[in-house]
Automatic annotation (TrEMBL):
Top-rank lineage group of the source organism: Bacteria
Whole sequence portion shown: 432 to 723 of 845
Residue span, EAL domain: 24-278
Protein's recorded name: Diguanylate cyclase/phosphodiesterase with PAS/PAC sensor(S)
């Protein structure tokens, strides 16, 4: 009896596994088809300097305009492909799309620097630098100096020596780096010293809680202090209210990004957003009485 039960269970498990595999396969195929059929979009979110109120650049964020389900967040489809070669196809599509858009903006008189998120698996691919150069050369009107790559702090720690080399090679062609979601990895400070990233992005989870959580505030203070010592620019993500912005500014944070400043939006809305963005009324942070 027991033996039979066991065997049945084994069978059930086997069937489940096969079904899982099939579902996964179908999902991957659907994402591949979305890429071929042009269902992905790139949204752009502004980043501003908190002291001057100037727009310092944009972050490119992928979306899936699904014909039935509507606009989907990257968190609903990127994790499925993160460990497959498809992440490289999607990543390269984003790079092309962003560079073409930057060229378009240049023609309209906007010289905007844009950061693109790169998955660890993509960045660690043997051909990454070679392919990046090839993609850049297809957009000769856009200076590589306008392109920044965001890599996760946690990914950067996979293999510090490799990361360091690839980053240096990219910097050799003019591309710069930001360490994304900083503080959520388990980085030892000595790793930070070894990574040549120009910018550190404070993860939004700390910003979210900093107004009522002393520990999160201490982490933010620590990261900003660290950035200063290592001569890196620091930007806070997830800045939703002027209270966040004011406190961050008081602690010496350079730049901010978040719903409180501007939501991610289609490329076509950016020029309007920039000309409408008047720091002094849009966000009280820049009002006279907020200065120091
Ligand atoms: P991330 O790079 O840390 O991007 C910031 C995320 O925070 C974005 O979510 C953005 O929409 C969201 N956000 C911005 N301001 C606020 C705010 O004030 N409050 C809150 N709660 N959230 C805010 P999104 O667009 O859903 O992207 C999620 C993650 O997906 C990104 O996190 C990034 O890791 C990844 N991702 C997005 N686009 C790409 C891409 O093209 N390639 C790769 N490899 N990853 C991408
Ligand atoms: Mg990012
Ligand atoms: Mg982030
Ligand atoms: Mg994140």
């Amino acid at each position: 009896q027991a033996k039979q039960l066991g065997r049945n269970r084994y069978h059930l498990y086997d069937l489940d596994a096969a079904k899982d595999l099939q579902t996964r396969h179908r999902e991957l195929e659907r994402i591949r088809r979305a890429l071929q059929h042009g269902e992905f979009r790139v949204y752009y979110q502004p980043k501003v300097n908190m002291r001057s109120g100037q727009v310092v650049g944009l972050e490119a964020l992928i979306r899936w305009q699904h014909p039935e389900k509507g606009l989907l967040s990257p968190l609903s489809f990127l994790p499925q492909i993160e460990q497959t070669p498809l992440i490289i196809d999607v990543g390269e599509w984003v790079l092309h799309e962003v560079l073409a858009q930057m060229g378009q903006w240049l023609q309209e008189g906007y010289r905007l620097s844009v950061s693109v998120n790169i998955a660890a698996r993509h960045f660690q691919h043997i051909d990454f630098v070679f392919r990046l150069e090839a993609i850049l050369s297809e957009h000769p009107d856009v200076s590589p100096h306008l392109l920044e790559l965001e890599i996760l702090e946690s990914a950067a720690l996979d293999d510090v020596v490799l990361m360091r080399e690839v980053m240096a090679a990219c910097q050799g062609i003019g591309v710069s780096f930001a360490l994304d979601d900083f503080g959520t990895g388990y980085s030892s400070l000595s790793y930070l010293k070894q990574l040549p990233a120009e910018t550190i992005k404070i993860d939004k989870s700390f910003v979210h809680d900093m107004l009522d959580d002393q520990e999160d505030l201490a982490i933010i203070e620590g990261v900003i202090g660290l950035a200063r010592v290592f001569r890196k620019q620091v930007i806070a993500e997830g800045v939703e209210t002027p209270e966040h912005g004011l406190l961050l500014m008081r602690y010496g944070c350079d730049c901010a990004q978040g719903y409180g400043i501007g939501r991610p939006m289609p490329a076509g809305s950016i020029s309007h957003w920039i000309s409408d963005f008047q720091p002094d009324w849009k966000w009280p942070l820049w009002a006279d009485d907020c200065w120091d």
